[in-house]
Amino acid sequence: MVIVMGPEATQDDVESIVAIVRAGGVEAFVSRGVERTIVGLVGDVTQLDQANLRGHAGVREVVRVSTPYKLVSRENHPERSTVHVGGVPIGPGTITLVAGPCAVETPQQTLDAALMAKAAGATLLRGGAFKPRTSPYAFQGLGEAGLRILADVRAETGLPVVTEVVDARDVDLVASYADMLQVGTRNAQNFALLQAVGAAGRPVMLKRGMNATIEEWLMAAEYIAQRGNLDIVLCERGIRTFETATRNTLDVSAVPVAQRLSHLPVIVDPSHSGGHRDLVLPLTRAAIGVGADGVIIDVHPHPEQALCDGPQALVQDDLPALAAVMRDFPPLLGRTAAEAAVPA
After folding, report:
1. Mean predicted lDDT score pLDDT of the chain
2. For residues 287 and 192, what is the distance between their CA atoms, to the nearest angstrom?
3. Which of 17, 35, 57, 154 is the 20 to 30 A CA-CA neighbour of 124?
């Protein structure tokens, strides 16, 4: 069961509802989004007086939700949500391009990649300062030095920063630099990390685990939502199958399925799914065509020198084609390309 608070609800209204619920022996978790506040109930709710709850100040409705992912489900919130990152929307009315280097390597490399991304129509900058790698000997990222580079590049380009956090102990540090926290595929069921980013006060991009079912993906999002954060964007980045021609297998069907089951925005990562530069643009077109709310793409000024995932990064010569996709495809689907936030 969830209690949906109206926009007029005060903090006192929310705290009063939580007190009533807990007095009835039920645990309450408060989750806040840009547009609404939800109180999720865990326990035996049959003893609660639902009529009394509905009549309480600030309560819009009390909803019984049958799915295990109660807060992120369409049962709870039939209308699809829009998440704003540094003023940039990700949601059903727009298509948002997130682009940048897979890994932050140097200030110049990151700035050059950010300018490439912006030229292609990106309104959010991706870049990894912490890199979870399969091999312990591979480049693991620059850590806080990389975060400082991203902050400097944001100041120069105006692009809000999306960056990955890999350890619950680093969440506060990364959140102090980032506009959006990314949880990668290898940490998609790291429940301590999911809970920590849920409490961090930043929008979260949750990539699908490479071995995860769609329900497991949504349950991971529920961990974030239950800790107080409804500003979650789901990212389909390819799953592990028997096929070896691509790095992973892009599950385009996951986009409409996740949108049917959840109100959260869904974007696609054509870079990590395909793993090859020549696949990125075709997969981008497929993602937008199937209804994705955005794409996240690797670009690099010199991918042959990249310390991470160079073969999948787009180069300068690819940018006109990417810009054309972002210009021409959204209107065909009744959408617009997301625009950069207007400075206050």
Report:
1. 92
2. 31
3. 35
The alpha carbon dihedral of 136, 142, 146, 148 has a sign of: positive
Residue 249 lies in a domain: yes
Is 72 contained in some domain?
A: no
* pLDDT value for 205: 98
Residue-by-residue DSSP string for 66-88: -SS--TTBTTT--SPP-EEETTE
Pairing of strands 180-183, 204-207: parallel
Partner residues linked to 29 by β-bridges: 40
Domain presence at residue 73? no
| Percentage with pLDDT > 70 across the chain | 99
The answer to whether residue 78 sits within a structural domain is no
Q: What is the distance between the alpha carbons of residues 90 and 73, in angstroms, rounded to a whole number? A: 18
Residues 36 and 154 in one domain: no
The reply to whether 56 and 101 lie within a common domain is no
**Could you please report the per-residue DSSP string of 214-278?**
HHHHHHHHHHHHHTTB--EEEEE--B--S--SSSSB--TTHHHHHHHHBSS-EEE-HHHHH-SHH
Q: Give the domain CATH number at 19.
A: 3.30.70.1140
CATH number of 232's domain: 3.20.20.70
Element (H, E) at 331: helix 319-332
Greater model confidence, 47 or 263: 263
The predicted pLDDT at position 122 comes to 97
> Are 191 and 329 part of one and the same domain?
yes
If one counts the domains in the chain, the total is 2
Do residues 130 and 45 share a domain?
no
Segment 281-306, tens digit of pLDDT: 999 999 999 999 999 999 999 999 98
What is the domain extent for residue 12?
A: 2-63
Two structure tokens written together for 28: 């309450």
Integer Cα distance of 15 and 140 in angstroms: 43
Burial of residue 221, with CB atoms counted within 10 A of its CB: 0-12 exposed, 13-18 middle, 19 or more buried: buried
